[in-house]
Amino acid sequence: MVILEDGLIIPVQGMRINFSRDRKNMKIHKIDKIGGIILIIVFVGYWGINLGIRATGFIPYNFKSDDMYPTIKKGDRVVLYKKAYRTKLPAKGDVVGLFFESNDKLFVRRIDGIPGGKIIDEGKIIELKNNEYYVTADNKTVLDGKKSEVVHLSNIVGEIILIHSGQEWKVKHGINLK
Questions:
Q1: What is the dihedral of CA 120, 122, 124, 126, to 10 degrees?
Q2: Burial, 166: exposed, middle or buried (Cβ in 10 Å; 0-12, 13-18, 19+)?
Q3: pLDDT tens digits, residue range 47-73?
Q4: DSSP state for residue 92 in the 8-state scheme
Q5: Superfamily of domain 58-171
Q6: Which of 7, 8, 125, 157 is 20–30 Å from 96 (CA)?
Q7: What is the pTM assigned to this prediction?
Q8: Alpha carbon separation from 110 to 41, 128, 151 (Å, rounded)
Q9: Cis peptide bond prior to 60, omega within 30° of 0
Q10: What is the pLDDT of residues 16-43, one digit of tens each?
Q11: Is the dihedral of CA 46, 50, 53, 56 positive or negative?
Q12: Domain ranges of the chain
């Protein structure tokens, strides 16, 4: 028996008793066991599906910038495939998710230079060493100051394989999902 302020709570399995200030308005509410079970199933199911999708290497993101306009617009949904580069190396033209050294935010960029290649950026020749890639934003008026940069292979998280824009789906052809 537990006494709270002006009421008494009697533990009864499957029942909840609420007291108001005057005992005449005492109300008994049966806890809906089926509703509770459904709520648990929905909660566990949501997280199970979410974790299951992530375990396969597919990570959905809402794109929040215009860095890759017109390929990917602000508000588009994209799917990053983390396992894309387990069996192959990134190729020129791939749209990838990556982290820059100075930032922990995920960026989406296009690969414009591969290891062993040379890039001319603002009049300077950049030679790409082993495991270095030159990435650029499709939108050349990027405001975050990271429109192009050399990144190491270890900073590339995966490849963007699916873009959902409004009612249109864009799928990268020739995807190897092994």
A1: -50
A2: exposed
A3: 766 666 666 788 888 888 888 888 888
A4: T
A5: Umud Fragment, subunit A (2.10.109.10)
A6: 125
A7: 0.65
A8: 41, 16, 12
A9: no
A10: 545 445 555 554 444 456 666 777 777 7
A11: negative
A12: 2-55, 58-171
